[in-house]
Structures are given as structure tokens and as C-alpha cells.
Amino acid sequence: MRPHVELIQEDDYVWHAAELPTGEGRASERRLSVDEEDGSSSLRVDFHTDWGRSPGIHHANTEYYVLDGEIDYGGRRIGKGGYVYAPKGVPTDYLRIAEGTRLLHYREYGDAGFDPIDSVASAKRWDDAREDVIVIDSEAMPWDAVPNPGPMPGLFIKYLHVDPTTGFYTRLVHAQEGWADHRLAHHPCYEEAYTTEGHMEYNFGTLDLGTYFFRPARVKHGHFTTMEGGATWLLRSDGELANWYTQNEWVMWGGEGVNYGPEGLDDSPHPALRWAHSTHAMAQPWRTDEDMRQLQASWQFQKDQDRFDAPVTHHGSGTDPAAVAIAKAMDAYNLQGGHDGHGHSHDHDHDHDHDHEHEHEHEHSHEREVINLDFGWFGRSTEHADERTDDQAHSWGAGRPWKAGDPIPAPILSSLPVRSRSRGRWDGDGM
């Protein structure tokens, strides 16, 4: 599967010679994301000369979307917004692309392989080939309101391709200025998007022209606010997209630094120094007043629809929910026996440096009770049993078919985005 890419501006990628076998002409590509296991790729391609390729058969489900310029598929010319879907193993007609054209190019479930044929009429489909070639002028399509219940009004969609068997779909999505969604979501399928116009802010950063993400299944994301002019993306998912929401998330982790600390490197014998980090502490209150107004409006919409929802809070402000959870855990621990398992809690500070051996623990550790602290659902307990035995059991982020009534797996926590070389900005606060 592809690695998580969140969030990157395409100008931060280097150019490569475009991998378009048997074609004539010059083109360069930016590799937005690549699956090195099967060759699946999402690419931004620029054509430096007129380019052409004769009829043939693609080794992958292949898509072309015109950002600027013109393509000619089998005699049908399409400009900006033109879209061609060529299924794997299906004979396709010639393709010509004009000099200066900029497009998005996707390959799914296969590599860049391409077998030339004499003609579409005489060529045989692969035995396992499905679907037919699709050619669309998306500029001529109307925008439809998103049919899924839940989001506030102001979100619109154009479906370019939907696989009737797998649910894989490619669509254009537009959020009008002022549209917001305060909820944090994860999905059973991967989700990727390239911003074709506009400006949106969310917890992973700024979505503006040329920004891209590829998010494996179950990676949590959210807090969207659409800024001036609205925002539009070409968005793809490898299955039917269900929205599972989380609010007021928390996590805290830590460790013991054995040769470093606030004073720098220290290789002399000394007790390990404990450190801790919270997602709450990572987040800076970077939301503007307008962002918060939009998020509050999104929450009010859910409330008006009689849907349960948690009030919006500015991430990184107020009480750290991780600290509250830890305090509750300590209360439960002490009430159920503390260190000695006999109802006698100890008052010593757990934040000390642990520079002694805790010999008293080892003397009677066999007497301690097993304390069951209930923090709610654990991620593994919400997985479907088949997930633990299928060929993707090694990967939590692998998408799997899901239907209403199936268990809903917990989200996967993600890391902070990287700094943008081209924009000189850190995008978002991660959680």
C-alpha cells in the first residue's frame, strides 16, 4: 500500500521524466504518491511538446484529468476539466496531448505498462477486464449537492467514475466559502485529493492550489473551514466512503531519555530522565476568529438536526483531556488497591526520576491485583475478526469493504506534517 502523505504542496516535489511508454513527445512528472508494491501512482504531468500514443491496453486502471490545456482521445477533443478513464485490460483508442498541457494522471492496481494494438476493434480484452472507457467534459457537468447526510449545506460534487463492483470512485468536490465541518473523521477506505482551486484550512494545514494528500484507511482528520472563494478538489477513494466521527480526542506518550536531557547530551552514568508529550501540548491555538465562527456554525447545524455532538473547542486550549484521563486512571487505580493490591494507596509522587530499584514492588508483586481501567473501546477490540487473518492483517491502514452493521474500527493516529520548502510554512497541528 502507499505511505501516508499529509499535507504537501506539489512544488515541494522534484520533476522526473514522465513514465509514459510507447508515447512520442516530452513530458515531466511529479510523483505525488506511489505504491512500490504494485505500481499504483498519483502523478502531476506537464507536457513540453505535443505528445501522442497509438491505441493500446493499459496494465492498470488509468485516469487522466486536464488541469490546463487539451487532450484528444480517439477524435474527441476536451480542454480544462477533461477526464478519461481507461480500465485495466480494456483496448483504448489513441491519445494526443497538446504542448503546455498540465494534467493529473492516476494508475491503480498496476504499473505504467502499455501494450500497443493495431486497432480497438480488432483487439481482445483481457479475460478479467471490467468496465469500459469513460470520456467526460466535467466543465459541462452540473454540481450536485452531496447526498450523504451529515455535513452542513454548501458541499457539492461531480462524479467522474464509480466502479460498480468495488465502489472505487473519482469525483470533483467543491466547498463554498463559509462551509465548515468541525468533526474529526476516519474512513474504511483510503482518501486522496489534489486541490484544483480555492483555499481551505483544516487541522493538517492549508489546502490551496496544488496541495495534495494521500491518507490510508482509518487515519483521523478534520476541522475544515473553507475560506475566500471556496475550494475544489479532485478526490479519489478505493471504496465507498463512510464517515466515522471523533471529538475531543486525546493521547499522551513519553519515555525515558538515557543519555540526553534539558542540559544536552550526557553519557555519564545517571538516572534516566522521564519526559511526556501530549497532542494537546503540540497544538497551538492557530484558528482565527472566522475559523471558529464557521466551526461553531457547523456544530449548531448538527444540533439543529437533533444529532448528538460534542461542542467545538479550540484544539490546544482549555484543559488537556489526556491529563484528565490520566487523573481518572490514577483515582481508579488507588481506589482498587494502588501499589499493594490491598486497598492501601501510596501518596508518593509518580513523577520522580525512578532512580531506585522499587525493591518493595518486587517483594510482594505476586499479591497485586490486576486492575482493569476502562478507557472505552480499544482499537483492536473494534476490528472485524476477518481483519486479523486476511492478507492485509499486517497493515492497519489497509482499506476493507464495510457495510452497515459491521464493527467500526478505531482511527489511526497520524504524525505532524512536514515543513513546506516552497511555502516556508508548517502545515497544521497534526491531531
TrEMBL record:
Residues 339-367 have a biased composition (Basic and acidic residues). Pfam families: DUF4437 (PF14499). SUPFAM superfamilies: RmlC-like cupins. It comes from the Bacteria. Residues 334-367, 385-431 are annotated as: Disordered. InterPro entries: DUF4437, RmlC-like_jellyroll, RmlC_Cupin_sf. This is Uncharacterized protein DUF4437.
